[in-house]
Amino acid sequence: MPSRQSDMAQQGFKVNSVKAANGETVHVNDHVYISLPWSDRDGTPYNIARILEFVPPANKDHRKAARGHANELHVRLAIYYRPSDVVGRNVSDFRLLYAAIHTMIEPVSVIRGRCYVRHKDKIDDLIKWKHTPDHFYFNKFYDPYIKREYEVLRTAAVNNIPPNVKEVLLQRYEYLLCEKEMVSDLLDAYRSCAVCNQWASSQTSVRCELCKQFYHMQCLTPPLSAKPAKGYSWGCQACTVQRRKDVESEKYRFVSNGGSAPPRGGKVAAAAKAAARKERLASNDQPDVMFRFWPWRYFGLYTRAEDTLSAEDLIFPRAVTRVGTKYQANVLSWEEQQEAEARHDAQVDQAGPSRLSLERGYDPGEKKHESTLEVWCTPSDELDAFMDEVRKLKHLPVPSYDVRLLNRAALLFTTVGRDKALQAVKSLKYADFDPIIWEDEEIAVFEEQLERNGGLDAWATSKALGKTPAEVLKFSYMWKNKKLKTENELIRQHRKVHAVHARNNSKTLGAPSLGKIRSRAESEASDDAVSLYGAAYVSTNKMQCATCSTRMSNVWWRCPRSVQGTAMCEACGSNYRKYGVITFTKAEDAKIIPKKEPRGTKRKAGDTASGASTPVPTGPPKLPPCSSCKKMEPKAAMARCKTCTYSVHSTCYGIPPEAMGPNWECELCANVRTEETNLEPRCVLCPKDTSLLVAKTKSKKPPADFDLLAALKPTEGCRWAHVLCATCIPEVRFSSSVTFKNVEGISAVSDEKWHSVCNLCAQTDGATMPCSDCGLEYHPSCAYQAGHRIGFEFSLVKPGRRDAVPIAKFKDAAGVMTPGIWCKGHDLDGRGIVDLFEMDPEQNENALQIYTGLYKTIAAGDAFPLLRKARRLDRFEPEPTPVLAAYTCSSCSIDVSPRWHADATGVKCHQCYFASMPVTA
């Protein structure tokens, strides 16, 4: 029956809100989950869209909405894409979306609930936002027609556009879409032509490399026809003349034109930055500015800034124009076409009449009158009539479309004639067609060979079956067609159950599910009308989640086709439909294996003898993976502590070859025996209280016994430091790059790193390190526990420093090796970041060994450890200030003199002392 909102819409009232299937009230411009019928969307997750408007049933304008929903209120939706829909592969950040200009009209019953979507620049804390349920973000745009991604910028952040254009865009659109190469130009400062003082776009202007001013190419004298080629620069006339004069007067020196960086603004720049941040935070909570339903429009390489002032200008992304000789054919004019036809007629008349009749395929003067098409025979109407009669025959041993029947009928017609051929076809039996009949055992062997070979291997299968490869190939087509026929019949039966089930049942959040293809009887028995299994089916069947293997759940969802199983628990099913994530982490109840009674304990009735079976000897305990790199290979370099069972690679922990063996002990266990270092194994570079971060991090997996933070090394002060922390802090060094000990230079860490606030644990205790992209401060151990990316990045050496900075080589990369931390929200695709323990097969060392050997190891001739420590502590000792005695001249009573001289009368200044000296001839 039609709803109250549907009646209001039909009567002309504007509907601004409706109630979704789960009971939530959604309004215009709200973001929602939408779900088409399960059979139509093939088990994919929910789509995410924004409500543009509610449409009355009389105004729906596509065919699908008219079937089964004639009196239902409809909604116009703006769709967002998931990255997996665009790139065709799984993406780690499942909260990321792509904006689009793509609308669809669907019944209100497809809305499953409300969600929240924001632009990345309007989110204060991205990590907190992504950890909140039903929250998504976007920073890119995808056009499904051009098949290209575009960057999404806030209109307020764009500076390099005309002021009048920016004023109009700010009133209409919140965001601008542009190509990736246009981002730096739009965010740059406003550019104006030095001649006409008008806005200088990057497409129509050039920049002088000397004075850094911009010029329109048409404002120059003479105008420039094109920009300089890649790798070349351009200079204006005044700068070029001045440069020539400087060269002639030998005032010009050929040095690098990259001057020193301008001085920073200090407190003024910091205050301006704080004010801009405060203004940005205040505008984040405001609703997006929209014009005709859309908050964004295209402003990129192929946009004329003046056209955007018009309200009718198209907002869609544009591609390069397809106008020109490269894309269009050269069409002759009317006069040129008349001349060509006259020349052709003159050549035909000059050739004279031909003795051959000109038919189709012949052209005088072309290929010496040879035919380009030769007809051997034409189908006769009698054959067509005969084949129609054969197709209408009944009680044939094979179907009328069988190729063997068609070939036999055509052969008989051409050899014995119509009447005899028709009688021969009627008398055919099934044995006359050489039928392919395989037993069930042969079919089972055939299917086994398909699975073993990953496809059809006719030669190998023929040997296993004792048949010819031709027979195997022919049967494979028949077998495959039968399988497809069965599956298509099941799909057609299932599609009879339509999306009306989602409208009639308001308790479910999903649509009907196919899961694995089931028969019609199974579908009806399991309540295929909804995505949830009914209570009757759950009570009569043993339910187990196909992903986490749990057996306890209040609600059981149906599985998509991509998952092997029949049901998913409430958490896994909801996460898959909302975020498209399938996690195969085992639940706690699934890890409990029920104990089975061994076969040896069963005894016959009346047997009174004690038959205690001999226990089966267990093998050696399985060696766990490396605690640092979480890998097993190479197993030859794996060491296991004999006391605490700590397992680690020798290259990841710094174990010399001579120490490897069954009696190896880790540093902590060895210190318990020797007591050379502090017995409290706490890293001095980490905060004292680590419980704050542990309380924030929630994981379904139980914590491992050992991880990367279990790798501790002694310091020069008889304390402990993590190998991770010592590697990331630049001031810290290792006495030996082989053993990663002792850790030196902790006292040389700057005060700023000790007093900075960690953005994860919010403590000022411990040494921090900034994120390599955004500058947020983190403790290295906190970043590791939070799952941030930690690794090494290669950068090019600046000119003039090649001799002072060592060059690191790792696989195909070469340059200055720098450790770094990157937040989860940064896009690191294509950056070439090397993990800490990634191996280089040529050098047979991991990245950590190469970095510590080049940058963290103290030179062998740099004194001994105690002297190095004393030199580092010298900067903390206050410098002694000399105490000067107070003197007064006994002659002139002055108390200032460059030098004081002792005399019989006391102390004299320098001037009085020389005045009293006798004059010598």
TrEMBL record:
SUPFAM superfamilies named among the record's database cross-references: FYVE/PHD zinc finger
Gene3D superfamilies: 2.30.30.490, Zinc/RING finger domain, C3HC4 (zinc finger)
CDD domains per the UniProt record, alphabetical: ePHD
Organism field: Vanrija pseudolonga
GO cellular component: Lid2 complex
GO annotation, biological process: histone catabolic process
Record protein name field: Lid2 complex component snt2
Keyword annotations of the record: Metal-binding, Zinc, Zinc-finger
Signal peptide limits: none
Biased composition (Basic and acidic residues): 357-366, 594-606
